[in-house]
Amino acid sequence: MSMMNTSGIPDRRKAPRFQLALRVQLEEGTGVTRDLSACGVLFETDCVFALGDVIQFAIILEHIDPSRPLRLQCRGQVVRVEQRGDTIGVAVIITAYQFDSRSHDRVRVLCPMAN
């Protein structure tokens, strides 16, 4: 069963989203998340992406331990790109991720809801 959003279009999200502003490091730039779920993210950036692009990026979790930020290394596929004023909104389904920090163990996970 899908829920309807305010525009009347069925909501196809597989997991609840949380509005969070976290730094995103991209291969050729940076961004900031608008919302995040277990298997997807929407971020704003000035980098250009195309629908279907497979990308790698890191979400920086600096509030857990400010002296040693935790990096959530992600791989995903761009499912939506939209102009948002001076920036570009990029929606990505996360297909794999791993936590990475010098002081933390590396954990690799494939997102079961991305399929």
The share of residues in helices is: under 10%
Main-sheet strand order equals 4-5-6-9-8-7
Number of helices: 0
Q: Look at the helices and sheets and give the structural class.
A: mainly beta
The mean pLDDT is 82
The 3D shape can be described as globular
Could you please describe the fold and organization of this structure?
By secondary structure, the protein is an all-beta fold. Helices cover 0% and strands 60% of the residues. The protein has no helices and ten strands. A six-stranded antiparallel β-barrel has the order 4-5-6-9-8-7. Strands 1-2 form a two-stranded antiparallel ribbon. It is globular.
Topology:
Blueprint lengths: L2 E2 L5 E2 L6 E2 L3 E4 L2 E8 L3 E6 L8 E8 L8 E15 L2 E15 L2 E7 L5
Record keyword descriptors for this entry:
two-stranded antiparallel sheet, mainly beta, 115 residues, 0% helix
Task: Describe, in short, the structure shown.
The chain is mainly β and 115 residues long. 0% of the residues lie in helices and 60% in strands. The protein has a 6-stranded antiparallel beta barrel. A two-stranded antiparallel ribbon has the order 1-2.
